Task: inverse folding
């Protein structure tokens, strides 16, 4: 789950995710064919023949990417159990990919480390699930730990664990509005950033220094979000009080809403409901947007109660969605 640094990873920027306690487990065993069993159903595939079922394409992608590295996976049965909610911005696909690759590593005893597994997982999603994602979700699923944040430079993969603000805890709330990355504006946003970088004459928006040259809308707004979001991550990772961290989260949501245009009325209302609570330092959408979940930084020991109050207001329509104007 990402605290700050949204839509910056595919721009070679900085991110600040953390691990949630929910997990995905994949059990593997040699089998007479490739079969994937999960709560969503059963799917079968063969080498070079992707499954029709969307949930199984992540597993197929892992097998295919290992094959591209010269690691041949024999016919295998994959049994998936997951506590991670799907379609709400909590990296369920990355959790599945990393768990699949870890299970295959244990079964086949190949020697790829956790960073290499994250890189393979990203390629599985890009090439076989149709989502042009950055590396953040897979690195977080592979390397993050609960209770601390993972500061990651997505260009160099330099990283370090950082403490969460003292006297604070995190809560995550589902807006109830599902999203589908491959069918949303996610890929369109990435293309817009690539076009903006081309017009600015840089390899990626990470390389923009100072005030960028004027660009046509909406490219100017996309650039403004990426640059300001990188700055927010760097400030938060340097160590700030909970109140300052909360303000950075609020500013991030405003930027995602107005400059990157990936929020929704439901997400705006839920953030509004959270920010009205005295126990909440700040809140924002988490994940790619277009629906899904919000994350809030709350006073330690008061997160569950604050979440309950916010959800009660949200369900009764008691928030306008414009508190963070």
Result:
């Amino acid at each position: 789950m990402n605290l700050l640094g949204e839509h910056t990873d595919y721009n070679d920027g900085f991110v600040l995710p953390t691990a949630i306690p929910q997990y995905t487990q994949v059990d593997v065993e040699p089998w007479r064919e490739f079969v994937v069993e999960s709560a969503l159903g059963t799917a079968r595939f063969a080498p070079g023949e992707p499954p029709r079922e969307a949930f199984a394409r992540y597993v197929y992608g892992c097998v295919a990417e290992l094959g591209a590295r010269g690691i041949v996976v024999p016919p295998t049965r994959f049994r998936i159990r997951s506590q991670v909610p799907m379609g709400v911005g909590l990296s369920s696909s990355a959790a599945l990919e990393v768990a699949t690759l870890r299970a295959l590593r244990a079964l086949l005893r190949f020697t790829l480390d956790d960073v290499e597994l994250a890189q393979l997982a990203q390629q599985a999603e890009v090439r076989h699930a149709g989502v042009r994602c950055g590396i953040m979700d897979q690195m977080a699923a592979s390397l993050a730990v609960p209770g601390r944040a993972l500061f990651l430079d997505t260009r160099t993969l330099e990283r370090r664990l950082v403490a969460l603000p003292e006297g604070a805890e995190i809560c995550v709330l589902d807006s109830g509005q599902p999203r589908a990355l491959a069918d949303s504006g996610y890929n369109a946003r990435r293309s817009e950033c690539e076009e903006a970088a081309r017009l600015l004459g840089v390899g990626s928006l990470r390389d923009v220094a100072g005030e960028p040259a004027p660009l046509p809308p909406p490219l100017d707004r996309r650039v403004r979000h990426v640059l300001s979001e990188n700055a927010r991550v760097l400030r938060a990772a340097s160590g700030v009080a909970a109140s300052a961290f909360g303000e950075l989260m609020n500013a991030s949501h405003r930027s995602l809403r107005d400059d990157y245009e990936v929020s929704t009325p439901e997400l705006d209302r839920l953030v509004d409901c959270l920010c009205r609570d005295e126990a909440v330092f700040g809140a924002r959408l988490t994940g790619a947007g277009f629906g899904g979940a919000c994350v809030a930084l709350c006073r330690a020991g008061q997160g569950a109660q604050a979440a309950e109050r916010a959800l009660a207001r949200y369900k009764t329509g008691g928030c306008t969605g414009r508190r963070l104007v």
The chain has nine helices and eleven strands.
